[in-house]
Automatic annotation (TrEMBL):
PANTHER family: PHAGE-LIKE ELEMENT PBSX PROTEIN XKDP, POTASSIUM BINDING PROTEIN KBP. It comes from the Bacteria. Residues 1-24 form the signal peptide. CDD domains: LysM (cd00118). Residues 30-78 form the LysM domain. This is Peptidoglycan-binding protein LysM. InterPro entries: Bact_Kbp, LysM, LysM_dom_sf. Keywords: Signal.
Amino acid sequence: MKRVFSIGCMLLAGALLTVGIARAASEEPTIYVIQKGDTLWGLSDRFLKDPYYWPNLWARNPAIGNPHLIYPGQRVRVYPDRIEIEPHASAAPGALRPSEEPAAERSFLVSGSEGFLMEKGVTPAGKIISTNQNRQIVGDDDIVYTDIGTANGAKVGDRFSVYKKLDPVSHPVTNVIIGEKVVPLGTLQITEVEEKVSKAIVTRSYQELGPGSFLLPFQEKRRQVPLKAAAKDLSGWIVETQSGHQAIGEGDIAFIDLGKSQGVEPGHLLYVLRDVVPDQQYTDISIEKLPPEVIGALVVVRAGEATSTVLVVKSIDTIYRGDRVELKKSK
């Protein structure tokens, strides 16, 4: 019983009381049959009341090829403290108790302040060249002037997002510069336009903006990003963090070296992996590496051509710049 209690504590990380764990050891599991649209997120939320448990669920069920899309018809054994998923091939009909309602798909709300990596070859639509009364810093409802005019196809009413470039970002493995970190400053709308310049009003400011800030076509900032199945497996790296800190966790923003050219799209789910190095003093054979640990999960919220912006939605352990990430396709 002490051993059962110890294992239960590790699985739930202290989330259940001793009495609950003892009861779980003696209870028969409830059988659930995966329905179309079910996700590990939904199953974790539904049965364990903890939607963020799903990376643990995936890691402890190697029969699951795709962590967030599982096969209809698979049997699930639901215990008070865990969920066990049987391989799809062993799912047999008859005498089962499928749920009447499939788990809802999960989506993530992003604010638009995440930023991105501006890659080589990406050209801004223009920039702010001056401000009313030559002020260096402006904000909401202030007047600015841009180098975008009718020659660029601009017209009154056009909206643009305002950004600022920060430092170049080098790849943690190859040391190659892969882009410049960019942060959003606000939005503006053109009110008067001439051939080569225009007048605009700042419609919203997130941070201080001024001359030199560059412009891109307006994109709605606050939006929902639903989970989406991937078409192929991919492997890459966390190349930078939004904050610039080496260590990040749940709720933080990072940038990876995978983008549209590799098939990455907003809504794709990636897992952060860390290699386990064996201690050779305890084995008689040569072992190069052990199965990697799953230490977190990321959702792509913006995809560039060769890089993407990701939101950390689960961190079992501290995540670092230079950690490896994997995208698993639907099987």
